[in-house]
Design a protein that fits this description.
Elements (H helix, E strand, L loop, with lengths): L8 E2 L15 E4 L2 E4 L4 E2 L5 E2 L7
Antiparallel strand pairs: 1-5, 2-3, 3-4
Length: 55
């Protein structure tokens, strides 16, 4: 059974340190970027509540 994860998601997030590309759930495969937590495509410069820094 599929379920949808609820989160506040913001496109073009202004703080580069907390954009998707700096998150542990962010993946870039074959030119497609996606979130493993939400299981959907995301742009590298977005941000959501599930952000966890790779640093």
């Amino acid at each position: 059974m599929s379920h949808e994860i609820e989160s506040e998601f913001t496109l073009s997030w202004g703080n580069e340190a907390t954009q998707c590309h700096r998150c542990t759930s962010y993946r870039d495969e074959d030119g497609r970027t996606y979130c493993t937590e939400g299981n959907f495509e995301v742009p590298p410069d977005a941000h959501c509540d599930f952000f966890q820094s790779i640093d």
